[in-house]
């Protein structure tokens, strides 16, 4: 049974960001390659600021606390929700994910291009609170290819894979809500399309 949290899932409404900085929201279904694309962008454009999300899921092999995610307990996460410490947060595949708000606001306020890699629910919250945020949806070349990628990671149980695929179908239907859609078919082509969108 899911625990009831102190406040409802949602973003904390705050003032619109100053024009000097910019918030970029990158989303897409699980397994589409968001993380790999973002790592390539950050390597090529160190001026980008990546906002590290917080999660209650266990680290995957090779993941480092504070670099890939901040890994915390459910109790700690719920405490931070109650204290309104998240810009957005949501539950996905049985775990909580959220964006710590203070670091993002500070970086955008200082004129940085800040990138969030978040799930659909979080992206919707950001769009509601910050209409000027630029949203990008990454699509797979096909649903069959997406399933192949998720299974190829060999990181999830069959039940978890089934949940991710069901969720992916719902998320793909929401792609038209975003400012731009990019199909991640050829990796290098996709990175260049992201660069063109972000840097003109």
Automatic annotation (TrEMBL):
Q: Keyword set for this entry?
A: ATP-binding, Cytoplasm, Kinase, Nucleotide-binding, Transferase
What species does this protein belong to? Calothrix parietina FACHB-288
User: Where does it localize?
Assistant: Cytoplasm
Guanylate kinase-like domain ranges (all copies): 21-199
Q: Which reaction does this enzyme catalyse, per its entry?
A: GMP + ATP = GDP + ADP
Which protein family is named in the record? Belongs to the guanylate kinase family.
Summary of the function given for this chain in its UniProt record: Essential for recycling GMP and indirectly, cGMP.
- Principal localization? cytoplasm
EC no.?
2.7.4.8
Q: Which GO terms describe its molecular function?
A: GMP kinase activity
What this protein is called in its record is: Guanylate kinase
């Amino acid at each position: 049974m899911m625990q009831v949290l102190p406040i409802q899932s949602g973003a904390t409404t705050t003032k619109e960001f100053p024009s000097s900085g910019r918030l970029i929201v990158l989303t897409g279904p699980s397994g589409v390659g968001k993380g790999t694309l973002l790592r390539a962008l950050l390597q090529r454009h160190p001026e980008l600021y990546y906002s590290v999300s917080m999660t209650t899921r266990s680290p995957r092999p090779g993941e480092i606390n504070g670099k890939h995610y901040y890994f915390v307990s459910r109790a700690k996460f719920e405490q931070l929700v109650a204290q309104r410490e998240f810009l957005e947060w949501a539950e996905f595949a049985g775990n909580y994910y959220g964006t710590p708000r203070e670091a993002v606001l500070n970086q955008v306020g200082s004129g940085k291009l800040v990138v969030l890699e978040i799930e659909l629910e979080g992206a919707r919250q950001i769009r509601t609170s910050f209409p000027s945020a630029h949203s990008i949806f990454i699509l797979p070349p096909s649903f069959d290819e997406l399933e192949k990628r998720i299974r190829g990671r060999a990181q999830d149980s069959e039940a978890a894979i089934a949940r991710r695929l069901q969720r992916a179908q719902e998320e793909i239907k929401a792609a038209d809500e975003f400012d731009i859609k990019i199909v991640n078919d050829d990796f290098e082509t996709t990175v260049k399309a992201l660069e063109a969108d972000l840097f003109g």
